[in-house]
From TrEMBL:
It comes from Porites lobata. It comes from the Eukaryota. InterPro entries: Heparan_SO4_2-O-STrfase, P-loop_NTPase, Sulfotransferase. Keywords: Glycoprotein, Golgi apparatus, Membrane, Signal-anchor, Transferase, Transmembrane, Transmembrane helix. The lineage of its organism: Eukaryota, Metazoa, Cnidaria, Anthozoa, Hexacorallia. This is Uronyl 2-sulfotransferase. Its main location: Golgi. It is a single-pass type II membrane protein. It is found in: Golgi apparatus membrane. Belongs to the sulfotransferase 3 family. Coiled coil: none annotated.
Length: 329
């Protein structure tokens, strides 16, 4: 009996000793490997407390591409003049399209447009009256989208008179208004009160939202669905959308977010010089008359969807502006 107990104890000791040896051997094998991995990670891994803490030994600056799919009669001519003025000192290109009536493009043309933008040499700002195009859909890198909008009724009134009388550029430039002299000289108030299609047709006055909703067919029709998609795109796909009523704040935000392009833009805008001031002034619409209180009340209702989107953009812009100003103070 004693011999059996001794043998069991001896067997247990042998098993334990073997197990300890096996574990020790595995550890000896793994330690060099762990040390090697740790050494490799140390070459590429850095702990930083802020983005300013770390300056890599070698760096490649990612050249940026900006698309300004500008909305008609929303200060875009002023913006373009500022961009052109800044282009030389900040070393980027301003590229514009003359296909101003091409707001909506088919699927094949979207592919061509994406390929065209991809082939342009950065850094650049491309501007065009064009509804939003989703680059990601075509497997391409999304450019930085920016835009500027305006109070919907103010924009509609400005567009109404611009089509008739143009602006001060090139000797009272107009868009060759097609209509009688009576129709041309009709005020915006008269157009609304006479229930003219140009001023009250929902499909014609639903203008701002489609620029942000995109190229889908439903984006062209006045609906809450189109407004919702436009809001989603502003959140997900636009770096910044401002309002013309707060243009200086919009320029401040651009300079804060995209200094490679807009460094100095506020100074240029506040002290433009005679040549630039003349270019900005001559883009103002001729013979424009504001709506009466009665017509304003009528149109606020008809433009309800446009104002829904406009107020969303304005509120969002003001929050972003406050955050940027807080960070810079």
């Amino acid at each position: 009996m004693q011999r059996l107990k001794f043998l069991i104890l001896l067997f247990s000791v042998i098993i334990l000793a073997s197990a300890l040896y096996f574990v020790s051997y595995q550890v000896q094998l793994r330690v060099p490997l762990i040390k090697e991995v740790t050494g490799t990670e140390e070459k590429y891994f850095y702990q930083i407390h802020s983005w300013q803490d770390f300056v890599p030994v070698t760096s490649t600056v990612k050249l940026k591409r900006i698309i300004y799919n500008r909305v008609g009669k929303c200060g875009s001519r002023t913006m373009i003049q500022l961009m052109v003025t800044l282009a030389k000192q900040n070393k980027f290109k301003v590229i514009g399209s003359t296909r101003n009536q091409l707001l909506r493009i088919g699927l094949r043309e979207q592919v061509e447009f994406v390929d065209f933008i991809d082939q342009l040499q950065a850094p650049f700002i491309y501007h065009h009256h064009l509804h939003y195009v989703d680059f990601k859909r075509f497997g391409s890198l999304q450019p930085i989208y920016i835009n500027l909008i305006r109070d919907p009724l103010a924009r509609l009134v400005s567009g109404y008179y611009f089509r008739r009388f143009g602006d001060y550029r090139e000797g009272h430039r107009t868009w060759n208004f097609k209509g009688t002299d009576k129709e041309k000289n009709q005020t915006f108030d008269e157009c609304v009160l006479n229930n003219m299609t140009e001023c009250v047709d929902p499909a014609k006055i639903f203008y701002i939202v489609p620029f942000f909703c995109g190229q889908e067919s439903y984006c062209r029709n006045p609906s809450k669905v189109a407004v919702r998609q436009a809001k989603i795109n502003v959140i997900r796909n636009y770096l910044l959308v401002g309002v013309t009523e707060e243009l200086e704040d919009f320029l401040f935000a651009l300079e804060a977010l995209l200094p490679e392009f807009f460094k100095g833009v506020l100074n240029v805008y506040k002290a433009p010089g005679e040549a630039l001031q003349d270019k900005i002034t001559t883009t103002k619409t001729l013979n424009k008359k504001g709506p009466s209180a009665k017509v304003e009340k009528i149109m606020m209702k008809k433009l309800e969807l446009e104002y829904d989107f406009y107020n969303f953009v304005k509120d969002r812009f003001r929050r972003m502006k406050a955050e940027l100003k807080s960070a810079s103070s």
